[in-house]
Amino acid sequence: MNSSQKKQLFDEAANILQVNDRGGYTIPTQGLYPFQWNWDSCLTAIGQAHISEARAWQEIDTLFAHQWEDGMVPHIIFHELDDGYFPGPDVWNTKQATPTSGITQPAVAGFAIKRLYDRSKDKALAKRHASELLEKIDRWHQWFYASRDPANTGLVALIHPWEAGRDNSIDWDDAFERVPTEGVTPYTRRDTQHADPSHRPTKAQYDRYLWLVEHFRSLDWNNSVLHNESPFQLVDPGFNAILIRSCADLAKLAEKLNAPDIAVRNTQLAARGLAALESLWSDKLGQYVCFDRAEGHAVESASIGGILPIFAAIPAQRATDLVARLNQLSGHARYLVPSHDPSDSRFDAKRYWRGPVWLIVNYMITDGLRNAGHNEAAQKIESACLELIETGGFAEYYDPITGEACGGESFTWTAAMVLEFLERV
Ligand code: GLC
To answer: Cβ contacts of residue 379 below 8 Å, gap of 6+?
Structure first.
């Protein structure tokens, strides 16, 4: 790509961030997602820093201003009312000052603020924001292990698929059978009015998403009981790897910023998590897999959640194994990395997290590959990402076989990731 093409892509990406900026926070895309989402904001901030460091810090500050008393950081902050989205604040009914959802999302904030800090040109500004965020992110990490790992295994479980950020992954299918659909208050979906229904989760899945929300609401969103009261308890290797990486990064940043307690605690959490992650390795699939905690068995499902652990400091042999796995996948998909293995009969090239490529996941995977010294493998994925953008625009996700743009358009975190990838190619 020559420099004028790069400049054009940079400008288009920057424009999307600006159009979706609501002053203090950025919506993922107009129509489909009109509020602030947790991991969207943290990853978006990394892109925003290419334009304004102050604005990038503000994005994460705004998210953490809505941290719950118990330490949880919710997955959606409903800053303004918008009827175009379901389920809205009245369904969640979490009784927060600014309405929020009642579940969380992947803990990418620790990683994000270390990246912002390390790259910052304005170190005084960075130090001010990072020092305040350290303590809040540390509380969130402690909340995770206390509330989502009550038996102290070193790995946290999701209690709702939306927590994983991979809403309708094939990983959840079997466990989802145990979630009832009866008794859910009748509702009208809004997502299918903004995006092609064949790219979105099914009605049966939506019923179960809603059943879980209503169940947790009936338990007053009390995180000391939700995990054990949930029929859905899934240990996702990717989700854990993100948390582990954030603990490790937060620890390193805390050392720099002279917060030794936070550094020691998060170093220990990361080490314990990494050791436990090994229990999720599947020799058969050549990658990590989920564990169904409620039923006590591994989930045989080759999804991207099992490749994402490259983002954490896994053993060198595992990193090499995952590169082999990526090579296998490239035999089945033109564009890496499909969110599910195309050779699995359940793969669905256009349906959300059951096949499509997502740039944010590619970003974390390539970051991990580079840290593990697999630059060539990373570069292959990074180039594929820019090719997708050039042909399909800044979509929410892409068909890994044809490259077709799917889901929402002018998507914030896709644009943010492009600003990052442009630096690498
Ligand atoms: C969808 C995605 C989730 C994301 C949200 C907003 O729910 O699955 O990962 O955070 O949209 O973009």
So the answer is: 424, 425
pTM of the full predicted structure?
A: 0.98
pLDDT in tens, 80-135: 999 999 999 999 999 999 999 999 999 999 999 999 999 999 999 999 999 999 99
**Bridge partner residues of 303 (DSSP):** 340
What number of residues does the chain have?
425
CA–CA separation, 116 and 377 (whole Å): 25
Kindly give the distance from the C-alpha atom of residue 76 to the centroid of ligand 1, in angstroms, as a whole number.
10
DSSP 186: P
Q: In the 8-state DSSP scheme, what is residue 356?
A: -
Whether 57 contacts 129, CB under 8 Å: yes
Q: Please tell me whether the peptide bond between 87 and the residue prior to it is cis, using omega within 30 degrees of 0.
A: yes
Tell me: pLDDT of 38 over 90.
yes
Domains of the chain: residue spans and CATH: 3-421 (1.50.10.10)
Q: How far is the CA of 49 from the centre of ligand 1 (A)?
A: 21
Look at ligand 1, atom 12, and give the residue with the nearest C-alpha: 28
Q: Do the Cβ atoms of 161 and 289 come closer than 8 Å?
A: no
Residues 6+ apart with CB under 8 A from 29: 20, 396, 408, 409, 410, 411, 412
Does 33 sit in the ligand 1 pocket, CB within 6 Å? yes
Residue 410 Rama label (left phi>0; alpha psi -120 to 50; beta): left
